[in-house]
Amino acid sequence: MKLLHLDASILGDHSVSRTVSAAVVAQLKDGTHDLEISYRDLADAPPAHLSAAHIGQGEPDATPSDLETGQAMLDEFLAADIVVIGAPMYNFTIPTQLKAWLDRILVAGKTFRYTESGPEGLAGGKRVIVAVSRGGHYGPESPASAFEHVETYLRTVFAFIGIPDPEIIVAEGVMVGPDGRQQAISTALDQAAHLQAA
Fold first, then answer.
1. Would the annotation count 125 as a binding residue?
2. Which residues bind FMN (predicted)?
3. Domain containing 157: what range?
4. Is residue 198, in this structure, part of any structural domain at all?
5. Is 9 annotated as belonging to a binding site?
6. Distance (Å, rounded) from C-alpha 93 to C-alpha 83?
């Protein structure tokens, strides 16, 4: 069984989403003896932004190495049985590095296709777990819930390619003082520790 672990935070060792995503991977590894793990740090080696060459339109304005990297990312995703993503909220949405990765895996004919009855996801059967960190409070009961575009966006994206129920662990309020940060981390780590093994 193959697990793909992705982190997108730019904060390195200070990152809450990295802490939680690592705990998720550790929990799954402990419960699965044959788990093969690959790791990609999207902040350390960010994909280039999407260009016309990536979707076969217009002049080829992407370098061969960039196209090869995009293909490698798609191949990694397609080969994975489980995908674990560390996804912090930056300015109400996902980091640009994570968006660039998503642009490499949302590929017509590979992870989705258009049919007469509408789009059809082709990447079903994968387990996706997302560790989300948010500086403030943006949950459904929060007055700021309409500003939340990480969890909602990722649920939409993965449903579109055939993964309708990604598991989301949220560390919320990490910038609301030291106590708030610790409580957010503790709650998220507790959820990670109770994840069902692969």
1. no
2. 9, 15-17, 89-92, 133-136
3. 2-193
4. no
5. yes
6. 20
CATH number where 139 lies? 3.40.50.360
Consult the annotation and say whether 90 binds a ligand: yes
Residue 136 known to bind ligand: yes
Q: Is 30 exposed, middle or buried (0-12, 13-18, 19+ CB in 10 A)?
A: exposed
Global pTM value:
0.93
* Total domain count, the chain: 1
58 is known to lie in a ligand binding site: no
Residue 102 lies in a domain: yes
Largest CA distance in the chain: 53
135 annotated as belonging to a binding site for a ligand: yes
Q: Kind and range of the H or E element at 74?
A: helix 64-79
Q: Are strands 112-115 and 167-172 parallel, antiparallel or unpaired?
A: unpaired
Residue 89 is assigned to a ligand binding site: yes
Check residue 196 and report its DSSP letter. Answer: P
Q: Would the annotation count 92 as a binding residue?
A: yes
Task: Please say if the pLDDT value at position 123 is more than 90.
Answer: yes
pLDDT tens, 31-88?
A: 888 999 999 999 999 998 887 776 665 555 556 677 888 899 999 999 999 999 999 9
Ligand-binding site membership of 16 (annotated)? yes
Measured distance CA(7)–CA(45) in Å, rounded: 11
- Answer yes or no: is 15 a known binding residue: yes
Q: Which residue has the tokens 């949405």?
A: 93
Percent of the chain topping pLDDT 70: 94
